[in-house]
Amino acid sequence: MSRRRWLPRVDHVAQNVAVALGAIRASKLRSGLTILGVVIGVATVMTMASLVQGLRDQIVRTIEVAGPTTFYVLKVYSQTPVNPDRLPKEIRIRPDLSVAEAQRIAALPEIAYAALWGQVLSRIEFEGRRTQGVAVFGADADFQVIQGGELLRGRWFTRSEESGGDAVVVLRDEVAETIFGLVDPIDKLVRIGGRPARVIGLYEQPGNIFSPPGSEIGAIVPYRMLERQFTLDKTNGLWIPVKPRPGVTVSDAQGAATVALRNLRRLRPGETNSFDMVTQDQVLETFNSLTAVFFLVMIVLSSVALLVGGIGVMAIMMVSVTDRTREIGVRKAVGATTADIRMQFLVEAATLTALGGVLGIVVGVGAGKLATALLDIDTGFPLTLTLVSVAVSIAIGVVFGVIPANRAARLDPVDALRYE
Description:
The chain is an alpha+beta fold. It is 57% helix and 16% strand. The chain has helices spanning 3-26, 28-34, 36-66, 89-92, 99-106, 143-147, 159-164, 173-180, 223-229, 250-264, 280-323, 325-333, 338-374, 383-409, 413-418, and strands at residues 71-74, 111-114, 117-122, 124-126, 129-130, 134-139, 150-154, 168-172, 189-192, 195-204, 217-222, 238-244, 276-279. Strands 1, 2, 3, 4, 5, 6, 7, 8, 9, 10, 11, 12 and 13 form a 13-stranded mixed sheet that branches. Helix 3 crosses helix 13 and helix 3 (36-66) runs antiparallel to helix 14. The longest helix has 44 residues, at 280-323.
């Protein structure tokens, strides 16, 4: 299309947008109520998109910290924790993971690291000040290698403390600040679930972290201490993180670990594994499948709001056509064609919903930022979804503006001029 042909069309659309904005300013309350459904629908989508994207980015960055080749050995892999008091038979007959199994995997030539880790939920207390329930991890001095983060002060466990299950703890820095305030926590005794432990270090977790059980870290203690002093959920609260040696693929490392575990458990050929393995990719896939359902529900709810907004736009445009019947007659009398009138009201409807979309984006991004800030999640700006939201908003205006626009275009100019 040549420049001479499309420039007048652009100018014509711009004039119609100016007319539409004037009509909206003339009835601010009515226009505001009309686009409320569009604002709610778009804001809901943008808020959920910010949360989902933030959580996904968090997991991806944590996978990069742990290394994309790291995988986990579990008693059973389930998208949601199973009830340890009502285990199905196929889970109940599975042996619990053990330190000996972790040591056997760690000894394999394909494996760089493997150890048995555990987790409980407990309160941490110092001189009457205590936290809410936080995740207490039982691990070893290589915890930071797998989970990332930084040791701010003090030290990790010695080998003798690990093997002896000594009551020592590395506190997360935020937990230490909560219960100690300005007091130096190093070498102080805290109580974890009522059990004393000496603070030997302060740990800062990465800005984004995702561990298999999915709880926020509060403290790290030697695994043998956790095993001896706490009641472990050995179905959901135990796992073996495994890191292959450089140059060894995840598949080869998993194969070697599988053979070792089957031999230890004396499984015969043809018998199914009595354990599960999950890779970082599977963790990400599980998250995607869970959030996909949640996001789908939000899309459906948002669609209802957008449908209500579209119906509101159609209703208000029908009223607008009636109120401006004489104006339409005047325009037709001075040479406006049926197509010109139709375009005027379509552009007005699209402008109305586009404004609703922009407001919805502003509200949604703001709500998303607030939610992610409260959850301590970093998230970027969902640019693609923003553009889609604006396009959908405009499309709603066009679709629901067709009937009012056609009605306006079909008005007889003589009858329109007589209308009072």
